[in-house]
């Protein structure tokens, strides 16, 4: 089979390697679409796996852990001292035509959900988990800082949780339009608008945001969050920071205004299923709009990975086609290719 493999720094190649063999408790999947997350269809099952069948559509839960520690028991997989990701940490991955995975890593996807959309379950689950950390309620004002892939996932999750006052701060005009398409109520550029003042003006009682989702990973965004959050509000840190430190100009603000700052990392298996259900039922609207490119495996490096690393304007998610053999979903098609259609 073909597989994109890492040979060294900036050295990735499509190689021909043996197909993985089935083993007890495992399932063989024909991968269809991959970002670093992936989805496909079951092709073979170990005799002791009875709750799946050949041709079942599945999204693959990519986190691998030791499965024995206290954090694993709580499904806080990102805190497991031995955590990693399929592919990145070994055990095969989504950039190969086939993978054999533990049965517990598979989540069934309804037949009416296209597999390219199913490949988005993982990033959507990151946003879903972040929203659940804050527990927003209808009527709340929520602010999302940054409309990259995870910021968009947070917007989708907020919409699915019936939040109708979603403000997004994003300097890129294209990403701003994508945030609006995802369901944001207001999208503003921090280069043109005083974001905290805008949030105050558009929040109940002019009190500021009930919850803020920091998805930009820069000092300026964190500072906006501290200024825009209301008393007893919550700031959810979803971003990964390149900087090793953050400045809080007046730490007493946290105490006086009783602000909560919480980190959000990965997701649970239950949340993976919740996202699949929300997509299937149309509560997550038009997730295919996150897909800004599709490339064949042979062009995954030049037309996919290098484009994203270079920060080419216009891209959110570039999916690699592993020979899907299924109808692709265009953003204008809505959630599903057949029985369900949801307008953006």
Automatic annotation (TrEMBL):
Q: Which domain of life is it from?
A: Eukaryota
Alphabetically ordered keywords of this record: Metal-binding, Oxidoreductase, Zinc
What cofactors does this protein use? Zn(2+)
InterPro entries this protein is in? ADH-like_C, ADH-like_N, ADH_Zn_CS, GroES-like_sf, NAD(P)-bd_dom_sf
Gene3D superfamilies reported for this sequence? Medium-chain alcohol dehydrogenases, catalytic domain (3.90.180.10), NAD(P)-binding Rossmann-like Domain (3.40.50.720)
- Residue span(s) of domain Alcohol dehydrogenase-like N-terminal: 32-111
The residues covered by the Alcohol dehydrogenase-like C-terminal domain are 149-280
A Pfam family matched in the record: ADH_N
User: Which PANTHER family does the record associate with it?
Assistant: (R,R)-BUTANEDIOL DEHYDROGENASE-RELATED, SORBITOL DEHYDROGENASE
In the record, the note on similarity to other proteins reads: Belongs to the zinc-containing alcohol dehydrogenase family.
- Quote the protein name from its UniProt record: Alcohol dehydrogenase
Which organism does this sequence originate in?
Lithohypha guttulata
